[in-house]
Each structure stands twice: as structure tokens, then as C-alpha cells.
């Protein structure tokens, strides 16, 4: 059985730097293996207020300069853009919007753009106008997206994804799940390719 028969579920959060890196690797895997990818939201910092929270407060005692240097080096390797950011934001609305995008033709590209909105432009993903600007950039229907956000159309779907993550006992992201197996954390492309080949062997056995 080839990789096209494998559906890789990716649990992630748009404000997680390791998920930003992991998403870039998944995009390469899709091109190389023709994978089916299901992106599922995860509540990384679900209690973050709408105005955001300083990273220095969220990660007290952590050497942020050192952490950012490591992240930027990895982003450079993957050709990802990034900009200065000093706070994290509540991503719940963005997650609901991402689930909506998956029901739209061409909506898959919104995921990468939401990551860029935060990691490149330091955009507050809790603000509807920021999200709608990203929807427009993706070429999706802004009026429909505005209604989705106002009516919280995908609230239940997001709750279900969060609950599924709890059932799977996922405690950190990104986490990759397929065929009853999980692979957690950011891994370089070569290691992710090995995981896909492992899945191929298991599904063809």
C-alpha cells in the first residue's frame, strides 16, 4: 500500500514555533509522497487572553534569546520567514477558521498563512480582522469567513478535535498520528520520511 492510502493527522497550534517548522516539513512530505493530511487543532495555551501574553511571562526563567536563535536557525534551513515577536496570542478563533478552510476549495493554504501571520508579522490571531486579512490573502471568501467567526460555526468541531487529542493522550505538539501510531515533536525531513516509510510497511503487512 502506498503513502496515498495513509492519512497523516497533524495535531498543532498556530502559535507553536515547532508546529510552524513541522508544517513546512509536512508540506514537503505531501509533495514527495502524495500524503493525505488532516490538520487538527490542539489547545497549547488556551487560557491566553485576547490581548496576548508576553513570552517572558509565559516562559519565565527561560533564556528566550537562546531559544529564538535555535528556532531561527531551523527556520533558515527550511526557508521559512520570521520576524520579531514578544508575545503569544489566543489561537482558538484561528483554529476554528482553519477547520472551516479545510471545507473550502483551496483552503489548505490558509494554514501556512496563519503561521506566517503570527511568526512573520506578529499578528494577533485572536483578532477577527487579522484573521479575515489572512483569509483574503488565501483567496477565500471573506464574507463567509466573517460569518463563520461571528457565529462560531466550527466551535463544536474544534472542541471535538481537542477532545480527540486528550483521548490520544497528546500533551505536546506537533504530534503526527496515523495507523494507530504517533510521532511527537519536531523532526527533520529525513526522520519524518522514515516515519512515513514505517507506516507504509505496517499498512502493507
Describe the structure.
The longest helix has 17 residues, at 17-33. The chain has a four-stranded mixed beta sheet, sandwiched between helices. A two-stranded antiparallel sheet has the order 3-4. It has nine helices and six strands. It is of the alpha+beta class and 205 residues long. It starts with 6 loop residues before the first strand and ends with a helix. The chain has a single domain (3-204), classed as Glutaredoxin (3-Layer(aba) Sandwich). The mean pLDDT is 95.
Write out the CATH superfamily name.
Answer: Glutaredoxin
Domains, number: 1
In angstroms, what separates the terminal alpha carbons? 9 Å
Q: Tell me the CATH topology.
A: Glutaredoxin
SS-based class: alpha+beta
Largest beta sheet: strand ordering: 2-1-5-6
Number of helices: 9
Which class in CATH terms? Alpha Beta
Amino acid at each position: 500500500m502506498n503513502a496515498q492510502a495513509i492519512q497523516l493527522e497533524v495535531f498543532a497550534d498556530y502559535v507553536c514555533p515547532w508546529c510552524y517548522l513541522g508544517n513546512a516539513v509536512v508540506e514537503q512530505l505531501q509533495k514527495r509522497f502524495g500524503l493525505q493530511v488532516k490538520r487538527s487543532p490542539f489547545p497549547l495555551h488556551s487560557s491566553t487572553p485576547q490581548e496576548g501574553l508576553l513570552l517572558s511571562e509565559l516562559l519565565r526563567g527561560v533564556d528566550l534569546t537562546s531559544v529564538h536563535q535555535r528556532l531561527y536557525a531551523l527556520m533558515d534551513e527550511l526557508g521559512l520567514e520570521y520576524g520579531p515577536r514578544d508575545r503569544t496570542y489566543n489561537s482558538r478563533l484561528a483554529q476554528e477558521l482553519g477547520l472551516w478552510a479545510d471545507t473550502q476549495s483551496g483552503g489548505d493554504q490558509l494554514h501556512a498563512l496563519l503561521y506566517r501571520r503570527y511568526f512573520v508579522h506578529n499578528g494577533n490571531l485572536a483578532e477577527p480582522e487579522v484573521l479575515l486579512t489572512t483569509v483574503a490573502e488565501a483567496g477565500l471568501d471573506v464574507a463567509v469567513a466573517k460569518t463563520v467567526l461571528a457565529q462560531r460555526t466550527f466551535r463544536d468541531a474544534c472542541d471535538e478535535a481537542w477532545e480527540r487529542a486528550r483521548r490520544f493522550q497528546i500533551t505536546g505538539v506537533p504530534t503526527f498520528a496515523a495507523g494507530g501510531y504517533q510521532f511527537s515533536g519536531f523532526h527533520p525531513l529525513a526522520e519524518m520520511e522514515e516515519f512515513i516509510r514505517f507506516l507504509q510497511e505496517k499498512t502493507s503487512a
